[in-house]
Inverse folding.
């Protein structure tokens, strides 16, 4: 005769062990060294990374951003700030206007400037080297409107010509066009990261304000003099409301 009571007593610990293993596997995935593989977003999700070549922890944040920058409807924008430049190395892509832009988020999120800071859709922020929070953000459904992709053409190493269409039913306060350098490696010879080869990704080279009353138009980005034939560029269009929430976005890569 089978002792059902004993059988149930044996079953409970086995079930508990299985549940514990599932939790451990989930935690391992959540805290893995790479962002979670996710299904493509139906709407854009914009990751704004405020970073510096001088910042010791920014390298990890940049590597994380680099792994997701080409995911469908994920738009990574790397703003190199200038307040780390006093440490013996001048970030080759640092720009005071990027710092000023980050200061606007400082007021909204009520916290001091720091790097690496990751801002998601202009609505939330966290340390950009935190893989768990990045994974959590990537899993949330974005409600940003996907705009018409900008039409862009590069003319040798001189300029990038943009044609944009801002048609949207959403209300926005400001519209921006951003010229992005896809990737660049820099050998650091001074400062906290001395001796390292730093990979920069989706670097914001230029950010211009478009006129909101014009739903479509043209703009010409002048390329810096040290551009190589092998350098790849993208152009992103970003719409923000008065609180810096991103309500519309799109990006195109120059083929």
């Amino acid at each position: 005769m089978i002792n059902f009571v004993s059988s149930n007593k044996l079953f409970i610990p086995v079930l508990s062990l299985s549940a514990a293993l599932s939790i451990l596997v989930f935690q391992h995935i959540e805290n893995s060294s790479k962002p979670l593989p996710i299904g493509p977003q139906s709407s854009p999700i914009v990751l704004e990374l405020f970073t510096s070549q001088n910042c010791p922890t920014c390298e990890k944040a940049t590597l994380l951003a680099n792994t997701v920058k080409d995911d469908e409807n994920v738009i990574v924008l790397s703003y190199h700030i200038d307040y780390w430049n006093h440490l013996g190395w001048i970030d080759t892509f640092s720009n005071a206007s990027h710092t000023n832009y980050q200061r606007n988020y400082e007021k909204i999120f009520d916290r001091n400037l720091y790097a690496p800071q990751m801002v998601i859709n202009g609505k939330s922020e966290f340390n950009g080297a935190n893989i768990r929070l990045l994974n959590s953000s990537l899993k949330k459904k974005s409600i940003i409107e996907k705009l018409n992709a900008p039409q862009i053409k590069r003319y040798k190493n001189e300029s990038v010509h943009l044609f944009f269409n801002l048609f949207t039913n959403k209300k926005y306060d400001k519209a921006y066009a951003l010229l992005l350098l896809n990737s660049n490696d820099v050998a650091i010879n001074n400062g906290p990261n001395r001796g390292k080869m730093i990979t920069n990704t989706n670097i914001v080279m230029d950010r211009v304000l478009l006129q909101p009353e014009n739903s479509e138009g043209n703009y010409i980005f002048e390329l810096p003099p040290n551009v190589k034939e092998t350098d790849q560029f993208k152009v992103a269009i970003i719409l923000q409301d008065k609180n810096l929430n991103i309500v519309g976005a799109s990006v195109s890569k120059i083929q």
